[in-house]
Amino acid sequence: MALADTSKDAFNRPRGYPDPAWRIDDPAFKQLFIGNTPLQRHYTGGLWLEGPAWNAVGRYAVFSDIPRQRQMRWDEVTGDVSLLREQVGYSNGNEFDDHGRQVSCEHYPPQVVRYEWDGSVTTLVSHVDGKPLNAPNDLVTLPGGGIIFTDPGYGARVDYEGLERELSLPTRIYYIDDSLQAPIVLDETLERPNGVALTADHQRLYACDTQSTDSYTSRIYCWDVADGGKRLQNRRTFVTAKSVTHDGIACDIHGNLWASAAGSGEDDSGVVVFNTDGKRLGAIVLPEHCANLCFVGEHRNRLLMLASRSVYTIYTATRGTL
User: Structure pTM?
Assistant: First the structure.
């Protein structure tokens, strides 16, 4: 089921249906994939692509090329990718709030910022207890204006996706909103809290821990959301991965979790789909390690995947959460 020919021309030649990128591990996955839709590659040439976020009004997705300090724009109508912003602090995760404003996690200087309608940039948080954040990574926005973000410090490891430095704070998950004087610490038990996603009803939060051990390569944890996002409770292990690393994640309207995957095996990189019980249903195999993903399009039924240097999409038979 792997894409043996990963050259650019391979994506321009006709291929039979169903696309060989689809892999079915459980019959239930047949309800989520479309048999006559192709895997498309729209762009390649990035250094490390991350942080996709869908803007429904503009019909575009923004994403980060972290080492280049660039934010890029994929136009759904034309399929073109263009430069949106430069010198954006090695931005990683991006999201749009209920007012349509873009919110971004920046590795260095480490902060979470919001792009206002007048073109100005507001720093939402940069320090906790007088100490600089590690390197904010990913985030989700809540209906009431709150933001949950992770701070694992990956952007402080080497001078490539940020600035190499010692971490000043524990690796944590935080909550912020405009009414607070300081962030609320939601969790500090994960070694490397990374990608996050909310269910459609905003009652459950998922987060990836990409710290490898001798027994697993990464884990996905789940919490119940309380007090409008100001508290997480009932933490449990949702998925334990033994051969791949999960990074960015997204939920569909049925509660399934779509998780990016990067592994060393021929068929290990792409996207893995789990049901609400953590059972693997199937996968989308890509020729590159997948870092992050989001649902895009008029019906939010198109999955956009950022895989190392390239941007891919494929239509699905489900819809992403709003």
Answer: 0.95
